[in-house]
Amino acid sequence: QVQLAESGGGLVQPGGSLRLSCAASGNSFRIYNMGWYRQAPGKQRELVAGITSGGNTNYADSVKGRFTISRDNAGNTLYLRMNSLQPEDTAVYYCNADIETGSYYSNYWGQGTQVTVSS
Q1: DSSP letters along 72-88, please?
Q2: Strand partners, 26
Q3: DSSP of 84-113, one letter per residue?
């Protein structure tokens, strides 16, 4: 019973910034790879940024230079700093993680947080 909970979404003007957070909670577990995905209306869910347990990162071309993914030292909290936001960044942003418990390894999704970029 592991849960991911996103926070930090909201309404922001073009050019503004937001920081999303994703906190994992539950019984004993270990998180490996984590990532942020987003889904805009009428579009497929896409990977925005990912980070491994070793700190390696990758970004979608559309957000390179604007977004930064990171995780805390314990590895159980994920962040996404979003700068220079544009209307095309409007979407529901989801936290995703590969998590191992005492007896199984599964992929988890958060419930999502809405990011709206508009004047």
Answers
A1: -TTS-EEEEEE-S--GG
A2: 2
A3: S--GGG-EEEEEEEEEE-SS-EEEEE---E
Q: What is the pLDDT of residues 5-51, one digit of tens each?
A: 999 999 999 999 999 999 999 988 999 999 999 999 999 999 999 99
- As a whole number of angstroms, the distance between CA 96 and CA 22 comes to 9
- Residue 46: beta bridge partners? 38
Give the pair of three-digit tokens for residue 19: 């920081």
Q: Residue 117: what pLDDT?
A: 98
Whether 31 and 95 have beta carbons less than 8 Å apart is answered as no
Q: Is the separation of the CB atoms in 8 and 18 below 8 Å?
A: yes
